[in-house]
């Protein structure tokens, strides 16, 4: 039976319209996957947001054949050097590799679950890496035409993912800071050994269960796996990610070895901490998400320190008029109209 020709042009137009809706990142990804499944059928997927600076994944939407083995899958993904999203340009197909076994993820895990081909994409622009997507097929390879179609989609999807992150910077409602520590201990294979009581509730919001199956620790696995990748010399980005939890609140996840543990079985333990993202780190994310220019970012950085236009102009060796022009542009890009609102959104005050 002949396979019908997929109307890629019409599908591309639908994707562009989806990207222009301004939907939140989860809704956007769910709708994009539905359209992609129609245009380029696939059997499973793994769609994550990424920290634009560190490229570490978080907030996944996942439907894979080996979900119970998610810790192992994540570890192998980060240790696989071929088609790594950090160096990916366009779409990469597993079937294009001279030897697919070069992918640790496929060789050691996915092929045993019937995966035949993987289409990998990274969503990047000059402001950072905003997400990554793997599409899996069991029965046949992705075609060159499908790869070209997916490559064309990366630009509008990248912009939409970045804007969805920008929309999370709302003025936060006043509330006390959480006092309970958020931390987990993981074994070298990323099994969770222990966690503080408040951690579970936080992670439930960060990574809701998919189709009745738990993915609650997915973002933790990612930051811990990045630590393993750094230790193995696969990547140099820090084992850290920042993720939006809700109501304008951003969390920073960090992974490190417990070096001073005395018990033998604890020497390789990985500690992952979660804490509210600091104002300087929020500011960095804010400038990237709203696509501010380097000069606009410099102006905002000075304003965030409480400097007036005269002081900012002197520090940057420009006129006050130039500073005001930059501020007007920042206000327009961020949908704010004064410094108080701008800083409240950017710093989470």
Q: Mean pLDDT, rounded to whole units?
A: 91
The succession of helices and strands, N to C, reads HHEEHEHEEHEEHHEEEHHHHH
Number of distinct helices? 12
Distance from first to last alpha carbon: 61 Å
Structural class: alpha+beta
Total beta-strand segments: 10
Strand order of the largest sheet: 2-1-5-4-3
> What is the general shape?
globular
Summarize the structure in words.
The chain is of the alpha+beta class and 349 residues long. It contains twelve helices and ten strands. The strands form two sheets. It has a five-stranded antiparallel β-sheet with strand order 2-1-5-4-3, with helices on both faces. Strands 7-6-10-9-8 form a five-stranded antiparallel β-sheet. The protein is globular and about 65 Å long. It starts with 7 loop residues before the first helix and ends with a helix.
